[in-house]
Amino acid sequence: MTGVNDGQAALERGRAVMLVTPPAVEQAGALWELLASETSARDPGVSPPGPATVIVCSDSAAAEEWADAAPQDLRLHPVTALGRTTRLLAAGAVDVLAGTPEDLQALARASALKLETVTTVVLAWPEWLLAADRLGPLEHILGETREARRIILAWNPAALDDVIERYARRPHVVGDLPLGDDARPLPPVGPARYAIVPAPRRAAVRRDVLDAIDRPRVTIWRRGTSPEASDVIVCLDLPSRGELAEIAGRGAAVLLLSPAQLPYARTIAAPLTALPLHAARAKAATDAEQLREHVATRLESGGLEAELGLLEPLLERYDAAEVAAALLAIGNRPSAVGGVQPTAEGRPPIAPQEEWVKVFVNVGKKDRASAKDLVGALTREVGLARTDIGRIELREAFCLVHLAPHAADAAIRGLSRVAIRGRRVNARRDREA
Fold first, then answer.
1. Mean pLDDT on 244-269
2. Do residues 44 and 23 share a domain?
3. Do β-strands 389-394 and 252-257 pair in parallel, antiparallel, or remain unpaired?
4. Domain that holds residue 407
């Protein structure tokens, strides 16, 4: 491990720097020190043509976290709406721009973001982008900023070998690699439970978490504080490996995670088991009951002779309940565990279609968009539950997304802040409906 001063010296020599840190903004304090040298080097009497630094994030929520955590003297803007971002960039009011690779690519293609003027590119835990197969826009940004300094935040550097070799060869490493003396990955420090709760909502769902735990002594831990001995310690911030070891020595740990943090959490905690919150349990029970009612209605309507003939060889080898469960799994149908999930081909879920609201989205097959892209944008960027998403009708120039009525307006607002396959999304209620 070497210090931040060595990292600054490496950047000055044109060498990339890798900060090995858990995937949480509050764990990346060293980045502000590295960026401070970049900001102070700019001539205050000259209006810059654009941001000196871009931070490439997994989603817009992460971009907002960077803005909330930035030092007050650093003009960091998160890309949550392309129109507003374009106006701020034109006014020269941004020192650091944080956004998803798709949003940054869209701004560059519209000539709002001049990538050739960017002097530092920060990749904020690109392991998530690799896992989600979102390297296309990222490689475009890196290809257009070859002369810019590289700072990579990583929790699993081994997964980034190809990206590092192409765009940040032989980086200077700041932090401890998650390897033992035998050069093998370190084992988890102990058991923990978790709930998926985006950072902005953690304070709001605290009561749900406490109700789900139902223990007499529950304490809250935030980074920078010492954990108190308790039955259960709820971590509102993501702990490092060493911090989790200290927490586990004082009580049973419960981690509140964003989706992008779950793979990291699995490397430091095992077994890592889900903590179902009350709202999630109630929703799962409702979905399961709706599924059972729908199946019963279909059985009572009859006309299944052809299907029974097709399944007869399987019914001779397996229990009928197992065959039914396998068919649900193959079709990605709702279950008491997973909720409603559309298939990759966009087949309709079990819930009756009259319950869904149809939303028009201006991306289609010609944009190389898929149902998976739509589902990813709605769950990761907008924050919808998969149970709120129904059938996706993919057309040549657009698509129609069936959504739960209570989620439609939020989806329309949220989609207006994202890009899919490099194209800015416009969404509205389908006029035909």
1. 91
2. yes
3. unpaired
4. 353-429
